[in-house]
Amino acid sequence: MKKVVLLLLIGIVFSCSDDVQIPEIIQPCQPVAASFASDITDNSARLNWCGSVNDAGECLPVTSVSWVVTYGSPGFDPETGTIITTTQTNATISGLSSETSYEFYVKSDCNLANNDWFGPLLFRTSCPAPTNLGIANLTKTSATFTWTPGGSEVSWEIKYGLQGFNLEEAELFATGNSTEHSVMNLQPNNDYEFYVRANCNSFTDGGQAGSSSAFSGPFRFATCLPPLNLTTTPTQNSMILDWDSNGETSWEVRYGPAAGFDPNTATAATTNNSTFTVTGLCPITAYSFVVRTACSATTSSAWVSAGNISTLQLGYTGMYTYEEIGNTDEPIFGDPATVEIVSVSDTERSIIVKYLANLDIPGTQPTMTFNFTLNCDGTVSVANDQDTNFNCGGANVLLGLGAATPTSYNMVDDDTIDIRFVEDTASETCVNVPLTEVLIRLTKI
User: Fold this and answer.
1) Which of 18, 62, 78, 207 has the greatest CB tally within 10 Å of its CB?
2) 305: containing domain
3) pTM
4) For every residue of the chain, which 3-state class applies, written as one string?
5) What is the mean pLDDT of residues 17-23?
6) Is the pLDDT assigned to residue 112 strictly greater than 60?
């Protein structure tokens, strides 16, 4: 009988011990102490909550808790809203409608009976942010900020300062119901930026209660005056740029093929003249050109674009005569002859020249043909395997392999091409020609 009583007592003790350990194994649901919305825009918001707060009302970190968030229109059933599960104490939601009220609830992700939704917390999305920020009436010390309303808003607020200023600490300026705002007393030759946001109600005094849109910006500009009235004059392989100085003295020019043009990676040049000639271009090819003022080593104006401009086609067909400039001793091609440009290719930039030459070969007057390829950079390429002979001071030499090889050209005008020849001293020399360079001018008949 004593053994039976002892066994019963032991069973009762172990049963009580099991009951005491249950709360330590199955933790209670984490309560929510506070919730709020932040970073509200016209189509998104950040939902925040605290598992606990300190005496100052600040959120304390909570770890190892999974949370369930639900949101929808005011009055919605939290069990049927849009559900988000997260281990963070915040969730960013998007795809919302502008100027619309929403509610959200939150609770820890557990199934105990004491796990109730915390909420609702009401918030309202803002109006759309302004777009198309820009400036007008720029001077060395002033500018007018401009923008386009994102919706039906009628008042705005701006912040501005030198590039990199602290947006949170900067002074806020109300603009009333105007979509532009003029600022004065700027520092010359400095880089600035401005932001603008809309007030989402009908007040226009800038001090009203109510939500605002997100800030648009920054829009960056410099109190460095851009060039004016940029014009272009194309040739076959160059472009003449001209602009009004606007009181400035130094500029940067950038250019390149129109397809995929990017001023940041384009060919760059600097000049102190308000006229600049870009050379080495290809005929009938579209290029883009931009110019900006360089006010200092670090401050420049906005780019001014000339748009996409095409160079001219070659157009050098027809009969030509030639003359040698700088060589009065003996013509490099023998006696004066008529030169026929058989064909001109705009894509290959080649000139096939055919002429009747009087070489120092007794009883002969052969017709000779050779090919120039005019490169975009103004050089001339001649195939080295051409076996065309021409006269050079009484000796016959090979074009491309001999004493006088064309190296560069200049399209003077629609009727004239100058081709420069350089004597190759490693080959047979022009014994009666004192110069090592000869310029042949082809002139259309």
Assistant:
1) 78
2) 228-310
3) 0.64
4) CHHHHHHHHHHHHHHHHHHHHHHHHCCCCCCCCEEEEECCCCCEEEEEEECCECCCCCECCCCCCCEEEEEECCCCCHHHCEEEEECCCEEEEECCCCCCEEEEEEEECCCCCCCCCEEEEEEECCCCCCEEEEEECCCCCCEEEEEECCCCCCCEEEEEEECCCCCCCCCCEECCCCCEEEECCCCCCCEEEEEEEEECCCCCCCCCCCCECCCEEEEEEECCCCCEEEEEEECCCEEEEEEECCCCCCEEEEEEECCCCCCCCCEEEEECCCEEEEECCCCCCEEEEEEEEECCCCCECCCEEEEEEECCCCCCCEEEEEEEECCCCCCCCCCCCEEEEEEECCCCCEEEEEEECCCCCCCCCCEEEEEEEECCCCEEECCCCCCCEEEECCEEEECCCCCEEEEEEEEEECCEEEEEEEECCCCCCCCCCCCCEEEEEEEEC
5) 41
6) yes
